[in-house]
């Protein structure tokens, strides 16, 4: 074991290559917050977190003034102890997105450090359930895309080996959503999985109106139909449909997932490793879901989640949204299968020169052990 002696943080703003819209917003950018840690033996690692265009400087401020100074001198391998210490140290701001996103940048760096020191990839460190996972693509299913373009994208994905596509819903009428989904189902056939995502845009009544249509089209899941704090509404909806209700990208702690599961309010959990505070809590959520015979299908961050879904047995899908290609080597794929990285730690091959060149002005932070 070796104590942490040095940390630095910085932010890189990654603008999406395509327009990404859903029922409530447009994805402006990925404010990617990086944390690099160094231990007393000179071993170095890097973790990261993100926002979708707002709040990045707030995450950095929490890292600079509170979390990274507290991290100095701690034993790097005591990941669970560090995670709980930092969470308690800032308990007045937890549970919430800014705290979780900042904590995730540190926690992923510590797991990366453990992997680099042991020579093991993350998917083996965290469980080693499998070495590959099927992907579904979200990149061609945004809400502004016309039905014919949805079909073209899904057909191209199917030709590449993808086994499913996600289509955003939340048009003003049920017929509007049905037309888009029906076009994809008719063109792709019954064996191609179609997922839907409403991005918390609906009332309970509107979600229930759409449920029979989704059942008729054999939709894989109904994601974030209601505001994330409406657990009771999700429970009523799940009880009223055979389509699995998927939740999780807007939840920030294992306890929030426990409440959903206990109330029968979801059929699929979608924990986002950044939004729940890192790998340490993500694994707890995955195992909690497994104990209740529920699948975990994480949101976004495919380059990091690929290792986690390959670590656990109850993760049947990886969401394909490429976002790091500008600053890292592309994720390994075999057609529509994502392959678990074999490199030590997170297994992400960062382009450090590009990261340096694209670092946002004024975002560099450096903390050393006194």
Automatic annotation (TrEMBL):
Pfam families: MR_MLE_C, MR_MLE_N. One of its GO terms (biological process) is carbohydrate catabolic process. Residues 147-244 form the Mandelate racemase/muconate lactonizing enzyme C-terminal domain. SUPFAM superfamilies: Enolase C-terminal domain-like, Enolase N-terminal domain-like. This is Mandelate racemase/muconate lactonizing enzyme-like protein. One of its GO terms (molecular function) is hydro-lyase activity. Its cofactor is Mg(2+). It comes from the Bacteria. The keyword Protein transport does not apply. Keywords: Magnesium, Metal-binding.
